[in-house]
Amino acid sequence: MAGLRRKLKVLLMFMMVNLFIFIVSRSGGPDKSEESKVLVPSKRFWSKLTPSQAFWNLQQQRLDFQGNPVLAYAYNNDSGNVDAIGPIPDWLNGTGPNSDPCQPDYSVTSHVADYNSLPVRLKDFLLYMRCRSYPLVVDQPDICRRTPGGESPYLLIAVKSLASHFDRRQAIRESWGRAGVLANKTVVTVFLLGNSTAVDHHPDLSEMLRYENARHRDILQWNYRDTFFNLTIKEVLFLDWMSTRCPGAQYIFKGDDDVFVNTLGVLDFLKGLSGSRAKDLFIGDVITNAGPHRDKKVKYFIPESLFLGVYPPYAGGGGYLFSGNLTGRLLWASRHVALYPIDDVYTGMCLRKLGLAPEKHKGFRTFGIEEKYRRNPCAYRSLLLVHSRTPQEMIQIWAWLNDTKLNCQ
Ligand SMILES: *[C@@H]1O[C@H](CO)[C@@H](O)[C@H](O)[C@H]1NC(C)=O
Ligand SMILES: *[C@@H]1O[C@H](CO)[C@@H](O)[C@H](O)[C@H]1NC(C)=O
Ligand SMILES: *[C@@H]1O[C@H](CO)[C@@H](O)[C@H](O)[C@H]1NC(C)=O
Ligand SMILES: *[C@@H]1O[C@H](CO)[C@@H](O)[C@H](O)[C@H]1NC(C)=O
Ligand SMILES: *[C@@H]1O[C@H](CO)[C@@H](O)[C@H](O)[C@H]1NC(C)=O
Ligand SMILES: *[C@@H]1O[C@H](CO)[C@@H](O)[C@H](O)[C@H]1NC(C)=O
Ligand SMILES: *[C@@H]1O[C@H](CO)[C@@H](O)[C@H](O)[C@H]1NC(C)=O
Fold it and tell me: From ligand 6's centre to the CA of 242, what distance in Å?
């Protein structure tokens, strides 16, 4: 016990010194002559945490507390720590009900102040917020080895789709998402599906999906309700799938099934990357200084009782590109960030956890392009992604891009 205490003290001292160095270096730093002088804070630098009034923030405080040695020490009052602020309050230590996280958590009905007046989709989200694993019912275990030459794909294209969107998937297969070799690079495409359930009044399309998958073998399906607020589940499950089924992919494009992607342009862009830019790449249509919508009528409405604060920079979920090397780190980060109902914001939160921020590229047009350019073949040459395009438009634009007679000077 005494040994452990000593270790904790040494660790704490080390962290305080590091924090100090961090603060000094952030604030521009003192004179060069003073740089070698180490100043140790004379007083404790932590203070008692107060529970957030917003449910997501509170869950995040708990996750942040777990496995944080400084806070564990700060709250520990049985080791002669004169600066202790303990004991650990129940709200911080308690992880909520310890039962199966995939059973509905009815404690939210009393912990979220205005639960009863929230839209049903938010109630559903809150009840299942702790559940992160759902069974994979359609898998492609060897899709990343089924490549020409059997090597990992250079680009993995992952498209968020819904069971009923057969035509969008087929248009993608016939255009920008065609699997195989493109510009001498291996491309693999998968479609990410949940279950379009009877609960949400979807017709039963499972037989047609079965046929489609037998023909194309590019569908991944997990058994959870495929709804807008469950897209974060899709993200987390996909990262998990990647880490086991396709860990060698060099780059990943993830996006919606109603965007057009200039895959040739993407490959051309990736060709020029190296070093840490290639390793930490996360690029798209980045939105900064955004916050939750407080208008109940908006699809993205998030009440104050769920989230307080601003969003980190995030790349619009219509489509973004990131490095395979980041996948494992994003998966790790996701386990330390409470699920949030908006998937692209959630991914931004995970990046922030890793100390990274997405990069903006003006070729990603998740908000579309000017209408007058819609039918201008040359407009698409310099773009990487355009939202939104119909299946017919996808095939048309792809043909334009492949037309060598087209002269765009
Ligand atoms: C820490 O413990 C001591 C005695 O064990 C007590 O006097 C003191 O009030 C405690 N401090 C806090 C912040 O709980
Ligand atoms: C915090 O929770 C852990 C695990 O649930 C438990 O062992 C410990 O006694 C709790 N500590 C306090 C101070 O409540
Ligand atoms: C295609 O890529 C392979 C290795 O990935 C390389 O050896 C070959 O030279 C490339 N061919 C062309 C035409 O670039
Ligand atoms: C999807 O949900 C329906 C019920 O709505 C169920 O019958 C079906 O088995 C589920 N499909 C999968 C693939 O789990
Ligand atoms: C997400 O999926 C789970 C599992 O099917 C479901 O219980 C829950 O209601 C869904 N949440 C939303 C917001 O649709
Ligand atoms: C990521 O890149 C670093 C540096 O090149 C390397 O050491 C590490 O093994 C890579 N990780 C993965 C998962 O590829
Ligand atoms: C481009 O057109 C050529 C000739 O029509 C065709 O062979 C090729 O497959 C097309 N490439 C793509 C990427 O569609």
Answer: 15
CATH code of 136-288+314-401, in short, is 3.90.550.50
pLDDT in tens, 81-105: 878 887 888 888 765 667 899 999 9
Q: What is the pLDDT of residues 365-394, one digit of tens each?
A: 999 999 999 999 999 999 999 999 999 999
Greater pLDDT, 210 or 85: 210
Of 352, 346, 350, 347, nearest to 307 by C-alpha is: 346
Parts of the chain belonging to CATH 3.90.550.50? 136-288+314-401
Nearest partner of 238 among 225, 227, 222, judged by Cα: 222
Q: Is the whole model's pTM more than 0.70, yes or no? A: yes
Q: Which contacts of 116-119 are long-range, i.e. CB under 8 A and separated by 24 or more positions?
A: 118/303, 118/305, 119/296, 119/301
Q: How far is CA 134 from the centre of its chain?
A: 17
- The residue whose CA has the least distance to atom 6 of ligand 7 is 402
Distance CA 177, CA 321 (A): 14
**Is 188 within 8 Å of 147 (Cβ atoms)?**
yes
Q: How confident is the model at residue 395 (pLDDT cuts 50, 70, 90)?
A: very high
201: left (phi over 0), alpha (psi -120 to 50) or beta: left
Contact 227, 120 (CB under 8 A): no
Task: Please give the Cα distance from 336 to 353 (Å, whole number).
Answer: 8
Question: How far apart are the CA of 88 and the centre of ligand 2, in A?
Answer: 8
H or E stretch at 300: none
Q: Could you give the CA distance from residue 245 to residue 248 in angstroms, rounded to a whole number?
A: 9
- 35: CB partners within 8 A, 6+ apart: 29
Q: What's the gap in Å between 96 CA and the centre of ligand 5? A: 19
